[in-house]
Amino acid sequence: MKAPISMVACVLTLLVTQTNDAIAQACIQVPVDCRVTSAFGSRYNPITKNYSSEFHHGVDFGCPIGSKVVAADAGVVSVSAFSASAGNWIVARGAGTTIKYMHHERNLAPVGSSLSKGQEIAKTGNTGRSTGPHLHFQVETGGKAVDPMSNFCSKPPLKPGVLQGADPEQGDVLDKGSQATAPADNGGVPPPMGMDGSLSEIIGDIVAARTLNPDYMRQISGLSEPRLYAELAYMQSIRLKVQHERSQHRERIAATQAMLQLLMADDVLRSQLELQRKAAANAGASGN
Question: Rounded to 5 degrees, what are φ and ψ at 148?
Answer without folding.
Answer: -85, -10
